């Protein structure tokens, strides 16, 4: 495998405004390609918007969602990928021909549609069905996976994706700055965003606090370290419906180190060059080799009813 340059992006999406969001995706993809990126990853539901969907009926969701890959938004993504010779990952709501609804994240490149992942743990709208498969695919010789937001909170999902061969896991999110039972959690006042230049210092303090980045750093680097993978975390910046999000899109290497991170309050991206040697050098690679599934295989696979509670809802 050759080194791979990946960009992770953050931007302020507009709810239900696919045309606007796709224009921003094109702008950032173009700029990333000009700076040498081979791949760019955008946040969860970056094409459609996300949080506003909690109030939609099934009919409204069906009007918003698209079939994949035969849809307008996917065709637009493919045209952008062809134009700038860059692989693009972005998210939207999906519907199938039986009117089942899913949360999807897709990958396209200059040759067309590559793959999609359906979120395994959706919750934003009760009409969404859960995905039932892990997703493994290739980008320029690297084995990759996708896990969407809450999927990454369940450690077995990251381990299973790594065991299936993933060396890179794309982790699109819409997260942080919401209430929780954990200490320090809570919303960030949307009024601060109305004059973000004047309030930049206070916004950065809030975004980096336990409401945001400090919480993220308690667990996200461990996902990369324990599984010897590169984690490509993407998250929106600014207002998503009535909630203010803190961005902090970042790339974490197999040592658990942040090697690139968006620190701007603007629509932006950062690029990191991924080196395959780090995967083998990292402790997680050795720990994967040292596993003894005969001790815990039956414990992990024991029947269990999944109960998912999202406190801020």
Automatic annotation (TrEMBL):
It comes from the Bacteria. The keyword Hydrolase applies. SUPFAM superfamilies: Carbon-nitrogen hydrolase. Keywords: Hydrolase. One of its GO terms (molecular function) is hydrolase activity, acting on carbon-nitrogen (but not peptide) bonds, in linear amides. Residues 4-276 form the CN hydrolase domain. This is Nitrilase family protein.
